[in-house]
Amino acid sequence: MSNIEKSPPKAFAVPPRSPRVQPSVHQTPTPGIDNTRPLRYEPLVLNFWIVHGVALLMIFLGITLQVVLFLSETRNGFAVPINNVFSFVSTQFLTSFFPTLLVVPLASFWTSADRLLRSYQPYVALSEGKEPATRSILLDYSKHTEMVHSPVGLLYQSLMNKHYLINLSALITLSILLLQPLAGSLLQVRQIPHTTDADALVMSTIGLSPGIDNLDGFLASSGFALASVYDNQIDPPFVNEEWAAAPFQAPPSSYLNGTLAVNITAIQTEVNCASPTSLDVTNTQYLAVAAQVNYFVASNSTTPAKLTSEIPRLFVEPLTALLLSPLMIAIGFVGFGVHFLHRRARRNLWLTSPPGSIGAIVSLTSRSSFGQLLQPYDDERRMKNNLAGLTFHIDRRTGAIVAEEDFGAAEYVDGAPLLRRETPSEKRTSRDQL
Q1: CA–CA distance, 368 with 380 (Å, rounded to integer)
Q2: Cβ distance 394 to 400 under 8 Å?
Q3: In this model, does residue 12 exceed pLDDT 50?
Q4: What gap in Å lies between CA 183 and CA 253, rounded to an integer?
Q5: What is the rounded CA–CA span in Å between residue 62 and residue 264?
Q6: Contacts of 313 (CB under 8 A, 6+ apart)
Q7: How far is CA 54 from the centre of its chain?
Q8: β-pairing, 239-240 with 243-245?
Q9: pLDDT category of residue 110 using cuts at 50, 70 and 90
Q10: Which residue, 285, 347, 348, 364, has fewest beta-carbon neighbours within 10 Å?
């Protein structure tokens, strides 16, 4: 029997490394079998009926706004009380406050929904399969809510990570910023002329005055005409040049800058003597005033009239409505689709407590052992380096976060692979040397 010399094993250029994590998830009792399985945690904002109900409400409000704009243009606005009901605030404040008050809850809802989607995204990524640390446990979209981080950065990072639902949700949040200024400028109150039917009270009619014999009316008329020559007096009410009309009263209602058109009886006086123009004017005024005093008698009757006055009307601003309406409809449709697809993405995720608390994170990672690779004072860069080469996913049986070595992952920062494997040619050489 011949002696076979065995050559020493070939030394590798880089020593192999053993697995760095030894999870004990297999020792965790199976929920629902070994103990009672807690209910799945579902935020109220992400409830299917609520989030989709709000999305449909946005679409409905956008369509309704178009209908209201059409009615505003065809009906010359909407009637509002002539006197401000709230005397302690201006009309401009009311027209901007109430539309803004309507959209504030909607803006708050979509902002909260976006924040929850971002907080859920690392867990959704873990539930979909093995992901590196940068796309799972180190992924943090919530930091972009700080003022030092630009929303553009969130859009860019979510796009690079191919998290398109987060990207669309962030676009919704940015669009929400336009709702309040647009809603605040949606309504406007204008003063416009408005004609309505009315009844005028006629206080006299044609007839000889009982006092025509004492000539008091003529004396008063001559005195008024003389005063107008020296003091440039204007014609008295219901007298206009050579015309003297029967006096009447406007209907007892409040109106602004009103004009009352009434078919009324009037007397025209003419001066037939040849005289200078100034004397003709004086005689015409004298005769018109005398006619009103002597040829009208008191009466009490009503006659149809047309009252034209400036009244406040509520209008919808066309430009604002044409911007706000499609924006609300777009937010409704996009929000409906984003949350419908994100609900499907969460179907394999079973969280029993709100994501983000320290206790919840510890309960999910306590049996995964990769925490031994981290130090309490590690910053984000160090954690990224220490966790390089590991992939993470959620264990379907227990819901725990599990870390595994990824032997095909990139090298460490120091250039050494995680666990070097022999190539097929090296294996053949080793067998030949035995």
Answers
A1: 20
A2: yes
A3: no
A4: 34
A5: 52
A6: 76, 77, 78, 79, 80, 189, 190, 191, 192, 194
A7: 13
A8: antiparallel
A9: very high
A10: 347
Q: Are 345 and 128 in contact (CB under 8 A)?
A: yes
Match 């990207």 to its residue by tokens: 167
Structure confidence by residue, pLDDT tens digits, 232-265: 666 677 777 777 777 877 777 656 677 888 887 7
Longest CA–CA span in the chain (Å) reads 171
Residue 146 CB-density burial (10 A; 0-12 exposed, 13-18 middle, 19+ buried): exposed
Closest CA to 138 of 378, 399, 360, 398: 378
